[in-house]
Amino acid sequence: MILLRAAGLAKKFGGVRAVEALDFEIREGQVFSIIGPNGAGKTTLLNLLTGIYRPSAGRLWLAERPLAARAPHEFAAAGIGRTFQNLQIFFNMSALENVMAGRHLHERCSLAAALLRAPRLARAEYACRRLAAELLEFVGLGAYALAAADALPYGALKRLEIARALAGEPRLLLLDEPAAGLNPSEIRDIDRLIQAIAARGITVVLVEHNMKLVMGVSHHVLVLDYGRKLAEGAPDAVRNDPRVIEAYLGAGES
Amino acid sequence: MRGLLALAAVVLLAPLALANNYHYEIAILVGLNAIVCVGLNLLIGYAGQISLGHAGFFGIGAYGSAILAARYGWPPLASLAAATAAAALLAWLVGRPILRLRGHYLAMATLGLGIIISIVLTTEDGYTGGPDGMSVPPLAVAGFALAGERAWYWLVGVLLLATVWLALNLIDSPVGRALRALHGSEVAAEVAGIDSARHKLLAFVLSAAIAGLAGALTAHYAGFITPGKATFLHSIELVVMVVFGGLASTFGAVVGAAVLTALPQLLTVFKEYEMVVFGGVMMLTMIFMPKGLVPTLAALAGRRR
After folding, report:
1. Chain B nearest C-alpha distance from A49 (Å)
2. Which residues of A touch B191 (CB under 8 A)?
3. How many Å apart are CA A182 and CA A188, to the nearest integer?
4. What would the mean pLDDT of B109-138 be, rounded to a whole number?
5. Are A95 and A147 in contact (CB under 8 A)?
6. pLDDT tens digits, residue range A92-136?
7. Is residue A111 assigned to a domain?
8. For residue A30, how far is the Cα from the chain centroid?
9. Which one of A22, A195, A203, B98 has the fewest CB atoms closer than 10 angstroms to its CB?
10. Is the separation of the CB atoms in A216 and A239 below 8 Å?
11. What CATH number did the domain enclosing A243 receive?
12. Which residues, other chains included, contact B151 with Cβ-Cβ below 8 Å and sequence gap of 6+?
């Protein structure tokens, strides 16, 4: 099934066309990578897919149905989760609470129940806490559960964001440069983590500069350049595409 | 919950140290300000949204209940409830547009709101008595007036404990987590499915309702109110109490309110310089303990252990 379809997607900032007339389809269960030089529009595209930006033109379908969401929290409710290139951690909470906050969509809690500490709420909180602890374990941060988020090292924060996004049980998980700034051993951990997430049946969109990671983990690669689609296909086909090589290495002398 | 028990012990035992009615009066004012600050801390400390106009909601509660009881003969309990609801309603109406603003812009908008309320209370002298103030009937239930400093002390003490209990429950719930999350990163909260506009409004309305209730109680307790309690300066005092005690610390809000309400009363020599003292406290707090008194002391105690 096509989990996400974009048709004619475009975003202009003043006169700058950050994303232009973009069509693509993401199949359910795939790891779909988006690559391209800096400024190609990758993060803009993720922001369009999560409602942080409104598209200037174009339409989106999620699971064959037009995506009616407007605000970012409605995109989340529709089943799209994400992480951020520049960390967006809740530094005023513990690691565990960060993940528990990511569970918001699945918590039913009225203001009255919250104020009066309803007994039903206590049970739900216990379940939420357990699930968050399991997710921290899953991303390899079990030891940090009770630590304050601002005490965690950078590499751990990257994985904390992934755990928080997973807590929302997204159908589509967008990872914005999860390996940026990590050392080779941490990148191997991220590689394994992405494969484990895909094995859970979650469709992953990966924006990443690390080509080894992208080529190893992806089923499908979309190459952007100046906001347009430059190439698309299986990792091997894209890697050998002369247009892609030119965009990355610059035009050769001829 | 240990904190709540400790606070209950303080409320229970404090009368041993209160020698006369003047001491009780200070304790009652401390309690009423502490209730406002616990509510305001939900907005500023937890949800991360500033309000420089909360004395306005306090004033609406105070004058609303006073006018309904004194001029329209409402029973004080009904006027108290109606005035609290009025403060909440105004916060809901005004909060929807202005909570889209952030940082300095939100500060300016709430500042403007507070000033407008204060000016209305001062100029509508047909209802409010203008700058001279108005007298307020005592709080009475089924014909029995709540009179005397001791009775008020216990009422305010119980209400303070109830407010703190509700606030602690809220903070530790999914709703409270959502508030703290949007303080931590609004964009991350949104992509986690948290409706940030709705949660900001919730914290704003809740804190305004609490301020309105405390304002109404203050009016009925004092028996007389002037617009002074609804001014910009009082809004600032409330924020200073919250920041001094410790942002995102419910007991910090109580301690901040206690210290900064009692201190000027006890050091009457400084009366003329009250705002100077407040300004000084604010500056020293920001420089030496930006997290506020209670979180700083808690961190010190934790390190000692």
Report:
1. 11
2. 50, 52, 72-73, 75-76, 81-82, 165
3. 10
4. 94
5. yes
6. 999 999 999 999 999 988 999 999 998 989 999 999 999 999 999
7. yes
8. 13
9. A195
10. no
11. 3.40.50.300
12. none
